[in-house]
Amino acid sequence: MPLTLGERLYSQPPLPYDYGALAPVISEEQLKTHYDKHHAAYVKGANDILLKLDKARREDAEIDMKAICKEFNFNYGGLTLHQLFWPIMAPPGTGGGKPGGKIADYIEKDFGTFERFKKEFIQVAMSCEGSGWASLNYCGATDGVQINQVEKHNVNVPAQQKFLLLLDVWEHAYYIDYKNERAKFVNGWWDLVNWDEVERRLP
Ligand code: MN
Predict the structure, then answer these.
(1) For residue 145, what is the DSSP state?
(2) What is the C-alpha to C-alpha distance for residues 86 and 24, in angstroms, rounded to an integer?
(3) How many whole angstroms from 39 Cα to the centroid of ligand 1?
(4) Cα dist from 21 to 105, 172, 182, whole Å
(5) How far is the CA of 45 from the centre of ligand 1 (A)?
(6) What is the 83 CA–ligand 1 centroid distance (Å)?
(7) Strands of the 162-168 sheet, one edge to the other
(8) pLDDT digit string, tens, across residues 146-178
(9) Farthest-apart Cα atoms in the chain, separation
(10) Which residues surround ligand 1, an ion (CB under 5 A)?
(11) Structural domains in the chain?
(12) pTM of the full structure
């Protein structure tokens, strides 16, 4: 028997650490709100659309497919990006520092130095207008790494590239801890980067 739609819906994988594990860079309250409220809302949003589509198809009802695609992309983008985001962080002391190994070689090959990469990445994170993400992606066509800026959850996502490293700079990601001081969050966040996980994402 094929699985029913109810059995095939999206789920929210558990965090790979405790809510308080990323403090003081990300407080327990900040992480709990981000994961339990915001990430969870995108998972629910995407599932609600699947259920709505299923119902409309079974009843052969009229639906606005353009609006549904837009709403789905937004929620699906949200659930995917957050799912990729949590594992590339680790408690301070475990994470952070400069990468080694293959990921360091890739960064050096395209950026020259880690410092140059970090400077460009911070610039992208700081210049997101409103809600967005900074990311480092792998590009198979050039066998290289590139920085990208994701607007909201779904605009400017390169179709053929693989996300290696991401930073959420939506206000919901840092406002409890840093209020409007995004730079403090963006600069402090490097102490959390789990370079082993970033490296695992390379082909
Ligand atoms: Mn977020």
Answers:
(1) E
(2) 16
(3) 6
(4) 29, 18, 21
(5) 14
(6) 10
(7) 144-151, 132-139, 162-168
(8) 999 999 998 888 888 999 999 999 999 999 999
(9) 58
(10) 168, 170, 173
(11) 26-88 (1.10.287.990), 101-200 (3.55.40.20)
(12) 0.95
